[in-house]
Amino acid sequence: MSLVSVICTAFPTDLDSAETRASLESVLAGTYQQFELICIGAGETGNASEQLDSEQLDSEQLDSRLRWVEPSPTGNLTALEQAVAQSRGELITWIQPGDRWQPEKLSRQVAALAAADDPQTAIAYSRVSQQGNPLPIPTIPPDAPSATLHDALRLYYHWQTLSNPLIRREAWLAVAGEGFGLGISDLFCGGWRMAVALTQQFQAIALDESLVELAPWTTPTLSQWQQLRQALQETLTTFITPEDPQDRQSKAQHNLDKYLLARALCDSLTPDLAAEVPPILKTLYQNDPSIQYEGALIVETYRRLATGDRLNLSDRWLATLQVTPTPLITVVIPVYNGEATVAATIDSVLEQTFTDLELLIIDDGCTDNTAAIVDRISDYRLRRLAYDNAGLAASRNRGLQKARGTYISFIDADDLWHPQKLEAQYQRLTHPPETHANLRSLYGVAYSWTDYIDESGNVLKPGSHLTLDGDALAHLLLADFLESGSNALVRTDAARAVGGFDESLPAAEDWDFFLKLARRHFFVCVPEAQVYYRVSASSMSSQLQQQEAACLTVLERAFSDAPQALQPLRSQSFANLYQYLSYRALQPPLTPDNCRLALGFLQNIKGWDSQAPRYQPLLTELQTLCRIYQDNAPRLAARLCDAGSLTPQVEDLFQYTRSRPYPAISVIIPAYNAQDTIGETLESVLAQTWTDLEIIVIDDGSTDNTVAAVKAIDDPRLKLFSYPNAGQGESRNRGACHAIGEFFAFLDSDDLWTPDKLESQYRAIVEWQPPANAESLYQTRQPAVAYSWVDWIDISGRFLQRGCEYTSNGYVYPKLLLSDFIAGGSNAMMWRGAFYQVRGFNPDFPPAEDRDMWLRLAEKFHFVAVEKPQLRYRQVPTSQSANVVRMERSQLRVLDAAFERAPQVPPFAQNPERLPAYRAQTYANSYKYLTFKALEGDPKPQQGRLAIRLFWTVLQYEPQLWQERRFVIKLWLRILITAFCPQTWTQAVLQRFPTFPRLHGDLLGYTKMDVPVDAFSDA
User: Fold this and answer.
1) For residues 955 and 971, what is the distance between their CA atoms, to the nearest angstrom?
2) What CA–CA distance (Å, rounded) separates 346 from 334?
3) In degrees rounded to 5, what are phi and psi of residue 743?
4) Do the beta carbons of residue 788 and residue 761 sit within 8 Å?
5) What is the C-alpha to C-alpha distance for residues 858 and 500, in angstroms, rounded to an integer?
6) What's the rounded Cα separation, in Å, for the pair 468 and 715?
7) pLDDT per position as a tens digit, 196-211
8) How far apart are alpha carbons 974 and 989 in whole angstroms?
9) What contacts 243, CB < 8 A, 6 or more positions away?
10) Is the bond leading into 220 cis (omega within 30 degrees of zero)?
11) I need a labelling partner for 284 at 20 to 30 A (CA). Which of 195, 246, 255, 825 fits?
């Protein structure tokens, strides 16, 4: 074990001082025992042992570790430096009177240095606390630029006290001659100078725990405070020089002022000291951007000064310290003759709530008043760099080359940002979506939504507002959804690794840049409009031709490098491009040249987009408009169009722009011998108001004309796959294997949907917001499954009755266990990730595989209800659901499996005593439904005899139903008549007593969706 020399900084050491004695006892009480405790000045160890009372140590052990040293009054070394020279330890540390160590302080620091492989690692230090709470000094972010601890200590003395660091003797000897003056009269500044000198040559290990308790601060007198201020200012001038970047100089000075405020405001202060505070507050508020959003703290400080209350504002001022020597974010504004807008753009950057930035203005050979406008702006974060004109891409690259931040963001000199843009993007990029740890490092780009503004700054229209987290390459191949180079926040190393911007491109260099980034990194979205892209008044035809050529170059290059799986997106990508170029060309005022270009763009749309026939009337109207304006003067062309009521809206083209590489929803339809119903079922899907979908029909070995009926429908979204017969559950799983949508919606081949079903359920999931009382309602997570109410129809499609209109949101598992209120496999829409996490449908449970699926989903995911009937569930006597005995066996297997898992699922994992009562009620509810199915349809005796057994089982599981005696007796009578009377007699009885035919349906009304509390004790 290494010997540690612990040096008491008091000179001479006064063991009669309670403050000194408490500090030394904290050293002696530590868990690390191999140390010597050095006191300065005359004294006897015997007296020391009497005064330093440690319950864990006897006096003999104490004497062996405590040494007194006598400093020489002559020589150049201070008393503390002489004590170090006379020490024997391999490691050195100090204890200042008033400070206290945690028992593990030395043990942890010695162990940290012992474990260090690098011989240059010679220092270990920890966080410090005061009055039991960690001192709220901000920590240096792990993603801070590659500034050293040495640079950070030049900004502020993070160690706070000599009682903190443990250093190797050789490190001390290496810097001892540098004259940092470790004097007893100025321990804070001396310790600060020593820390800077040490970290200039050696590495340090930071322990993220508070191992040193700092002596409580007391308000200084005016004289003491002024002496401290002078000493700090003199010390700072030795660290920070005019050669340092301006932002580092300013941060260091602001930190010094904040520390002085913290020392002055720790308690009530005298009037003369109070008079020193307002000038500092004014200077900080005017010159320190990080304080501009601390108005409440400024006001509270003034309020306390006015009232004379105990201040206790030290912690809040310490929390405002700036600890990153180099800014975290670099913002680059390339500008060429931007005098009209550059000031507003700069303001939108400097007013960001994220203030730890540098702003580089790349003057691209401006010949107007831009330089003068920029130079008049006073902010230490701003630098203007002048170059010869080279273009937008080259200017951005120049900024990238000069950037010092870990992250970089570009903004054109006429665009604007929301004040929270950088802060929101930084938080999203540094805290990406929950994913595997190995994937988190792949996130390299954050972006926000874009809105378009006119030359006056008024919002014209929203952008695409596409939200995407993760792999963005496929989406970017379809369109530049970031919409401008003024959007992204990018890791600087990532931007440099892809080579920055292609300077050979006259346009679309930002799209090319994002595509290169997307091949290597994940993107993350801030789903708020925070980028305001300024639209110019007109587009010259030469500019449009340049943009077309540049975009074609970008896309050809991107697809040549894209994986084979993304090649099918090529045609849609080019179609999207020409829709956008047509829109740009047909912006007013219309010109013959632009209309001539637009004709070519529109023709290219038809060549690339296989779905162009769907909007051929719009294309025809636009082509007609172009020809009229191409052949006639603008005023005459306008009159002709008015006369012919020719007013096509070019914006309507964007209704057909496909911004997603994959459909939002995959509709999966298993079909077996469904020739009579599959056409109507598919029509109900094709009539959906939500059109971003694909339809996958799985032919499950049909022997009729099902395949021909599907093939007769001409829609590019429809796909047909044929397999040998395997059952409905397996067919659904087969469909999922082909599906590429974000969400899955299953539909049986004889059921129907209302036109708004998919859109309602999709929006219910993606636009979900937690209710005000989310915790009490167990609705705290984004739902993964949506469902609607159900109507029953007959074989002809006529309405029979409401099938289910029960609503439960959030964690629905306890309710869904009691009864399957989803009521059919054609109802729910689910996130594809949820489907795969529960491994799809279990084909071993036909025909109840859908109930098994909903239960397994409900164990892990939240549900959301659309409270209106959107599934029209067909009641077909010959369908699988008519086979009641088979249904019973399947239901029992599903429920038995569910209750085997239940002890590990909330609420039963926490309250296992609830299980018996839930089990009984669940089986009772299931047998109610089976009784209903047995009595549905023609009153045949065999169905009645089956109903006897089923209803008797209901009463065994739920004897409380006998409380509804009148209903139970009438239902028994109905069942017995059906079972033992000729069918004609039964029909006559049903006709004679109007309530009898609906008794079995009324039984469903007795389905219980709650288990009373007293049932748990009964169970």
Assistant:
1) 12
2) 11
3) -125, 150
4) yes
5) 47
6) 28
7) 999 999 999 999 999 9
8) 9
9) none
10) no
11) 195
